[in-house]
UniProtKB/TrEMBL annotation, chains A, B:
Comp. bias (Basic residues): 1-10
Gene Ontology MF terms in the entry: [pyruvate dehydrogenase (acetyl-transferring)]-phosphatase activity
Pro residues: compositionally biased ranges: 14-27
Pfam short name (any one): PP2C
Record's protein name: Protein phosphatase 1M isoform X2
SUPFAM superfamilies for the chain: PP2C-like
Record region (Disordered): 1-63
Cellular component per GO, a single term: mitochondrion
Organism: Mustela putorius furo (European domestic ferret)
Name of the gene encoding the protein in the UniProt record: PPM1M
Stretches assigned to the PPM-type phosphatase domain: 100-451
Length: 461, 461
């Protein structure tokens, strides 16, 4: 991942420097970089164009390369809408070594677990906006941030129960309030590491984009298989679902101006200066205009889930903080998502109003206890960017999965074929199983992760 | 509900004045006060004491009076732990008339629906702390606040779809952003009215307690049956569940310092002055002490669902904003709930630190579409204060419901008997169906609401 390679591979002619770790750590353990695959949609020439005459050309999705590790048949495929793909992806093995402490008093305790080593698998989708730069940086950076964050707490992650003190320090006292500890689990540390990794990666992207004079942001959806559990961390509007024979289980939820309305309005309530007098915090069923002045109209504020009526004042006529519905909903008239990485420089057009305070980089993390599932060979997790879910419902995707896999048991590439087929189903083919000929004009990336191989712990202990 | 009656009934010798509506409205429609029943636990003498020698005397629960309306057999029963019952309850019919507008231009439109009248049913449980005063005020006030809030929007509630303008005003324009409206439903207005009613009631309680020199607060759990739907609004740690033959569905969730940790920490992050330098916002597995200084210990902050490690600084040794776990968890070392009514004067002992900014009066509202259920005669909603749920799980309550009702089909008081039996099951009787002899020493109030009679719309249109 040299700077030259980085530029050549993703940004022809672009001056973007290679990402630097934000907090270099002196470590005597040699850094073994996981081999990472990025699906950058290197499709070759137009083909497979949708039937509808108004459809833009769609390149043939290139099948992702075989994975360099034994994770099964996970695949990524990109459908491209523009010359530079704003969707980016990464997957690979996460190799977590123990963290080295400097303090001498820690050495004895560390010796007890000095050979601890944890391996996991990592899949990530990034859907860029305002250009591909942030998505590319995220695809190149987030796994390193996650590895660093996990290494900082790995002694806790591999313990039966994470110790109160990372260094094994024990405080003995007779006062119960200083003794009784809450039951923190190893998975709580992994969740914390994912949360911190997203924030660290966001800081890296902010610095790198500023240094290179570039802009943009991206959503991030990450799945990590570790110690028999699958962690799904999401910031944005991509989605992961578990599909089994008799079950469809959402593993993420979308973060958009609509789903995060109360958090966003609350922030504007606490810091009204963020709106610079240009926007109204209140939500109305449509934009108000002069004729509405003095009328009693439907509205809601940050503390309300329900609606009520209020008398329209002049300040209510301002442009709304969140405007539009569904796919058209925009934060400050600008952004369709409310969580993601990057966008540090993003401002409302012709103003100095920043998006970032409203846009969070913190992901929501869901944990799937794979070891507790009675896994069937065709249980899969489908991860995809919003382009897929705009056109196919969870149920339609599950139907496609269930109709495809059983008939292709002998095909070693069947999970790849399934990922391809899911994308094909969004390109207006009337003969698809749903028969509705839906069309998506967005970049689409899909991972199909077979869980069967994840169920058996593949980590080193 | 005269002042004299109010005092006599609930506060022997107490100087509490009758609650006044916060915003008197001139209305030509005569106010028809619903007849309300308050279950104040007027138990008569000790009996039915638990077997355990250390148990405090428990009075025989008094069966609630027959309801004055056709809501079925809903019942309230109080188990008492102290001379003045901190649990209070109310139920009755809600009669919603149209709101009168003063403006002449509204009269024509109003004439179209001048006879609109909506009736519903109302059940409420209030669990007081710091004395019964707030719970009594809430039992006497909240239904009036809700009636007022519903009357203010009743034209929207009875419309097929709530109009953008309450007065029927129409704005015609060619710009789509000023035309297309979000699909607000009648139930959104009821949710909004419940949210507003809780806040209005909270303000009334604040004023009344201050005027009478009294203190205290209470949780509030309200169920409203209206237009074929059951609305459950909850602020505190009471709980409502739906029990059917094959289904247990939670209709509320509890608001405690633990369940609302992130909101509470977030508030302290935004307004650190609220902690007056006396508390630490961060959460640790146990309280820290001097020996922990400089160690790396588990912690989490407002933006984290997972845990991580941090190096302990001096400020981390302060008393935690949220301390303890489960039933022992306390907000600012003081309060076991994070939502409720009252407590405007409540401060941390020996400080000027107020609880109220952290304590919210906004309820969470759940909607059960009763008309969509294929109701069986024995489908019930069980509402109870925390004392019941401390001892019985949802599954145990459902088991008691399902084992009791089918064998008592001929008993006209069977829902009352069931409510009694549920409370008896918490009094350490080893021969109870759960056979575990659990004991609760808290006040307990239970409503058992048969849904069968709610399914048929009993409102006036």
């Amino acid at each position: 991942m040299s700077a030259g390679w980085f530029r050549r591979r993703f940004l022809p002619g672009g001056p973007l420097p290679a990402p630097r770790p934000p907090r270099p750590r002196a470590s005597p353990v040699p850094y073994r970089r996981p081999r990472f695959l990025r699906g950058s949609g290197s499709g070759s020439g137009p083909a497979d164009a949708p039937r509808r005459p108004d459809a833009r050309p769609v390149r043939s999705p290139a099948r992702g390369r075989a994975l360099p590790w034994n994770a099964g048949y996970a695949e990524i495929i990109n459908a491209e809408k523009s010359e530079f793909n704003e969707d980016q992806a990464a997957c690979g093995q996460l190799c977590i070594r123990r963290c080295e402490f400097g303090a001498e008093e820690d050495q004895e305790w560390l010796a007890l677990c000095s050979e601890e080593l944890l391996t996991g698998h990592y899949w990530a989708l990034f859907d860029g906006h305002g250009g591909p730069a942030a998505a590319i940086l995220a695809a190149n950076t987030l796994h390193s941030c996650l590895r660093r964050q996990l290494e900082a707490v790995v002694e806790g992650v591999v313990a039966t129960r994470p110790p109160m003190h990372l260094s094994g320090h024990c405080v003995c006292t007779s006062d119960p309030q200083f003794v009784e500890e809450k039951g923190i689990r190893a998975e709580d540390l992994v969740i914390g590491a994912l949360e911190s990794a997203f924030q660290e990666c966001d800081e890296v992207i902010g610095r790198e984009l500023e240094a290179s004079g570039q802009v943009g942001g991206c959503t991030a959806l990450v799945a990590v298989s570790l110690q028999g559990k699958l962690y799904v961390a999401n910031a944005g509007d991509s989605r992961a679902i578990l599909v089994r024979k008799d079950e469809i289980r959402p593993l993420s939820s979308e973060f958009t101006p609509e789903t995060e309305r109360q958090r966003i309005q609350q922030l504007a309530f606490v810091y009204p200066e963020l709106l610079a007098g240009e926007f109204t915090r209140l939500e109305f069923p449509r934009r108000l205009k002069g004729d509405d002045l003095g009328q009693k109209v439907l509205f809601r504020d940050h503390h309300m889930r329900g609606w009520s009526y209020k008398c329209v004042e002049k300040s209510d006529l301002k442009y709304p903080l969140i405007h539009g519905q569904g796919r058209q909903a925009r934060l400050l008239g600008t952004l369709a998502v409310s969580r993601g990485l990057g966008d540090h420089q993003l401002r409302v057009l012709d103003t100095n109003i920043q998006l970032k305070p409203f846009l969070l980089s913190v992901p929501q993390v869901t944990v799937l206890d794979v070891d507790q599932l009675e896994l069937q060979e065709e249980d899969v997790v489908v991860m995809a960017t919003d382009g897929l879910w705009d056109v196919l419902s969870n149920e339609q995707v599950a139907q496609l999965v269930r109709s495809f896999l059983p008939g292709n048991r002998e095909d070693p590439h069947r999970f790849s074929e399934l990922a391809q087929m899911l994308i094909h189903s969004t390109q207006g083919k009337d003969d698809g199983p749903t028969g509705e000929g839906q069309v998506s004009y967005d970049d689409i990336s899909v991972f199909v992760i077979p869980l069967h191989s994840q169920g058996q712990r593949s980590d080193g202990h």
